[in-house]
Amino acid sequence: MKIKLSKLIILIFIFCSICLTSCTYEKNIFLHKNNNSLSKLNKIKLKLIWKNKIGKNSIFFKKLNPFYYKGFLYLANSNGFIYCINIKTGKIIWYINLINKSCFFSSCKDEYITSGPIIANNYLYVGNQQGKVFAINIKTKSINWIQNVFSEVLSNFVIRKNILIVHSIGNILQGLDKDNGKILWTISLGNSNIFSIRGLSTPVLFFDNIIIGNDNGLISSRIASNGSLIWEQNLLKFDDKENFININDIDVQPVIYNEIVYVSSYNGVFMALNLSNGDIIWEKTYFTHKNFIIDNNIIYLIDIKNRIFALNAKNGHLIWIQDKFKNSKINNLFIYKKKIFFTNNKGFLYWIDSEKGIFLGNKKIDKYKINYILLIKNKLIIQTIYNKIYLFKILII
Description:
Helix content is 12%, strand content 46%. The protein has two helices and 32 strands. The strands form eight sheets. It has a four-stranded antiparallel β-sheet with strand order 1-32-31-30, with no helix packed on it.
């Protein structure tokens, strides 16, 4: 009896060992598969092609962005310099100083460049703090015309056919003839909010329509040829504890996707609007003051707590939240090969999985904050607040 019992114990021990080994093996296979899938997502390499610097700059003018045109990169700094850089080598081909060329008095030192550049038909356009718009011939490196607009230009320009659209302080929208600078039309977008934040929403074009937000919480659709109103929608919100002084600015550029206008206000209102008539499709509360992106029916945004949200573009419902970076100041969202890229204020570039928000990797670019990102196919132009310019090639292995 004792022999039979000992045999039974041995058999049970062997059986349990087999089961445990099998379970461990399956678990290892599962983890191995997960690690393999994660490593596949993680195989991104940034290869530095060149770096350069375009002089001193004030860190307060954040609307100055690189512009790519026919193999060359064009940049402006706040002190009035315009640079042309060879995109392949990073070498400066030419530069001009607008302040020296257009001013003869010491007061011109305060005429900082605040917006641009943008290029059309070999003419480059920038705006300044004193409400001047410059058109520069990039072939001759000379100023073609200068026009005084309503006030300081803090929004980037857009161009429709022969019209340069200028949004300036005071909720004024103007259309200029891009060839000679003549003001074709001027309209008011409404009374200014006394509690407005410094900055303006960049207009977005849809054929001959301009979609534009302003600092009183109104978004409108207008005709590009004359500024006439098509529709207007109100994003005002009252009695909001998180917005106790009633700041209703629309500083974020609206996004048009599948004939729907998506717009965000400083007060936390996030709306999807019918492009043709401005009717509200859905409305949610998401506090975001930074430009957002939409890809494959998903909205990606950064909220005021530096969390990344993924939302269903059809109804605004939350898909996932990534809060790993809530202790950093993150910005500059863009998407490439199903990965969401963004930067922080310490010179890092991060990337996460677009489907679940899983952290995948990062790279230290510079010791200072990255101000602007420009993606050209698989080339990444990075500009810091102190005007260091980097070009990286994105490699997915």
